[in-house]
Amino acid sequence: MMERIREPEIMNDMEQAIAYAKADFSESNQRFVDNLLKDFKPYLNNVLDIGCGPADIPIRLAKAAPAVRITAIDGSDAMVGLAQKAVKDAGLDMQIKVVKGYLPGIALEKHSYDVIISNGLLHHLPNPLALWEEVKKLAKQGAAIYIMDLFRPQSAEQAKKIVEKVSGNEHPLLKRDFYNSLLAAYTIEEIKEQLRQEGLGLNVAQVSERHLLVKGLIKGAE
Ligand SMILES: C[S@@+](CC[C@H](N)C(=O)[O-])C[C@H]1O[C@@H](n2cnc3c(N)ncnc32)[C@H](O)[C@@H]1O
Predict the structure, then answer these.
(1) How confident is the model over 18-44, as a mean pLDDT?
(2) How far is the CA of 74 from the centre of ligand 1 (A)?
(3) Residue 77 domain flag
(4) What would the DSSP string read from start to end of 80-94?
């Protein structure tokens, strides 16, 4: 198995953030929202999105579930700016609050979210346990967790093939970041071990040729 190669944590570069925001993730982001609704609709009250990027997922979720309230955080000024503009343009300021927040140590009220979502963040973190600790700190007892990320392919060759297949026509910056992200991603086994260390009884499963999903309820649910 190929070793993990870290990539820069925060997507602070404006050009990089814009290339990301312009890319078309509509299919996988809509699938994320559709499946979240299928699995956890009754839980969808106060939602936290960690590492929201340009806020495409919160916007899709807010449109699909008008009663939901979402706090969307990201550690990058460039991304927060793009997310705030996208939320405003979509007329969803009442439903989605975008705030700058960096983990570890997000300054939000403890145990106050019914659902915590995250997509594409985990592989950015030098210490992945930071995400699981934040989840334990911010989730209500019995909250639903729905966290998706890439998983690391067996080889660099395979990573290149995935990039060409999925984003062959995208901006070169985006393709570079995607390739680096695949190499920086964790394997399913590594994530199972992280969850074991943190005492989180969540399920991890491969859900596409490049994505894994961590989902389940925080202990204490009836
Ligand atoms: C690949 S993007 C995913 C964005 C979005 N969730 C989506 O699905 O399109 C990862 C995001 O995580 C943010 N990020 C990385 N490390 C972070 C940290 N330690 N704290 C907060 N945000 C972080 C980056 O700035 C970036 O916007």
Answers:
(1) 94
(2) 6
(3) yes
(4) HHHHHHHHHHTT-TT
- pLDDT tens profile 172-181: 988 999 999 9
Q: State the residue range of the domain holding 106.
A: 14-152+187-217
Q: Indicate which atom in ligand 1 lies nearest the CA of residue 78.
A: 25
For the chain, the average pLDDT equals 95
Choose the residue to mutate in 56, 121, 180 for probing ligand 1, maximizing ligand atoms within 8 Å of C-beta: 121
Q: For residue range 66-94, list pLDDT tens digits in order.
A: 999 999 999 999 999 999 999 999 999 99
Is the residue at 127 inside a domain? yes
DSSP codes joined into one string, 111-172: T-EEEEEEES-GGG-SSTHHHHHHHHHHEEEEEEEEEEEE---SSHHHHHHHHHHHHTTS-H
Asked if the structure places residue 90 within a domain, the reply is yes
* Structure-token pair, residue 220: 């204490």
Ligand 1 pocket residues where CB is under 6 Å? 9-11, 25, 51-53, 56-57, 74-76, 79, 102-103, 119-121, 124-125
Determine, yes or no, domain membership for 171: no
Structural tokens at position 118 = 């995250």
Q: Does this model's pTM top 0.85?
A: yes
Please report, for the domain that includes residue 69, its CATH number. Answer: 3.40.50.150
The tally of domains found in the chain comes to 1
Distance CA 98, CA 87 (A): 8
